[in-house]
Amino acid sequence: MDMSEINLNHGSSALRGEMRVNQPMKKYTSWRTGGVAERVYLPADLADLAQFLRGLPQDEPVHVIGLGSNLLVRDGGLRGTVVVLHARLNDLRLEQGDRGDALIYAGAGVACAKVARFAVKHDLAGAEFLAGIPGTVGGALAMNAGCYGAETWEIVYKVHTLGRAGQLQARLPGDYEIGYRHVALKPGTSDREQGERKSANFPDEEWFAGGWFRLPKEKEAVSRQKIKELLTRRINSQPLNLPNAGSVFRNPPGDWAARLIESCGLKGFRIGGAMVSPTHANFIVNTGGAVASDIEAMINRVRKTVKEQTGIELVQEVRIIGPVSEHSGIPDFATHYSVEEDQDGE
């Protein structure tokens, strides 16, 4: 698609965001690797993003990301437009709930750690774990992100969503199937906004634009101490000095992915510039110069080895997007496991 087909003055008013063309995705992902995206759009705010989506051609692929901390973009790059929400959908405010209690509203582009600090500042508890999640609110909502025994949807009161055709609506937790690192609209859940146009090619695309979190009162000092302890554990147990995407695999029932990977002797194993971290076996780090195919090959090598030695099939937590290249360097067995979906707000 030629750039002229994306008109930044389409619709009833001029768009206020920034369009960038031919962008290396290593600039937008925490693994610091990935192919080139045809276009990257940085919206000015939620209204601007809705306007932008309404004016897109119906065959334009859209990938919505946050910090890119749970995402691998293949070396072949991406056709279409990548929308970057981090620091764009950045509303963060205190509201009063229907019970007279406190609610925090956070836009999808707000860093999770910022929400944790905001809650502490207002003497609210229950969001401390968000300080340990290296992503944005949108991504945390999309995958029910969690750490140290707590998960995002445990504190969600309501969410704000944005559809492929620019329609905005509110949804409740009851509209979703929610599980461990899994969130999906329940079958048959219909739009509450009637009469809105949907894209013929992408009729079901919907992204989190923000969320309201209901939290109980707590003394600031207590919550601040919890955050301090959590961050100390994170610093001591994770390879924060090298580019990574957090935990690569979900923990299987009753076990830990890191334990299984370590038991197979894979700590320190390398493929190209990708390495299984010697610090935490469920982290794959970019030691410098890793291409996406190195990391994807490592993901599949780890999965295959663990399956062969333990009989357990690891399920990847990170999202992999982009076309598979004939010259990607990914082993044949890896193609079967490729994940073609993308994640918003990561």
Task: Average the pLDDT over all residues and give the rounded result.
Answer: 88
Name the shape in a single word. Answer: globular
Number of strands: 18
Largest sheet: 5 strands, antiparallel
Termini separation comes to 26 Å
Task: Characterize the structure shown.
This protein is of the alpha+beta class and 346 residues long. The protein contains 7 helices and 18 strands. The strands form 6 sheets. A 5-stranded antiparallel β-sheet has the order 6-7-14-10-11, sandwiched between helices. The protein has a 4-stranded mixed β-sheet with strand order 1-2-5-3, with no helix packed on it. β15 and β16 form a beta hairpin. α2 (112-121) runs antiparallel to α4. Mean pLDDT is 88; it is low at 192-200 and 327-346.
Write the layout of secondary structure elements.
Layout: E1 18-24, E2 36-42, H1 46-54, E3 62-65, E4 71-73, E5 78-84, E6 92-96, E7 102-107, H2 112-121, H3 137-143, E8 146-147, E9 150-151, E10 156-163, E11 168-171, E12 176-179, E13 182-185, E14 206-214, H4 220-237, H5 257-263, E15 270-271, E16 274-276, E17 284-286, H6 292-310, E18 319-321, H7 332-335
Parallel strand pairs: 2-5, 3-5, 4-18
Antiparallel strand pairs: 1-2, 6-7, 7-14, 8-9, 10-11, 10-14, 12-13, 15-16, 16-17
Provide keyphrases for this structure.
346 residues; alpha+beta; 5-stranded antiparallel sheet; 4-stranded mixed sheet; 7 helices; 18 strands; 21% helix; 24% strand; disordered C terminus
In short:
This protein has 346 residues and is of the alpha+beta class.
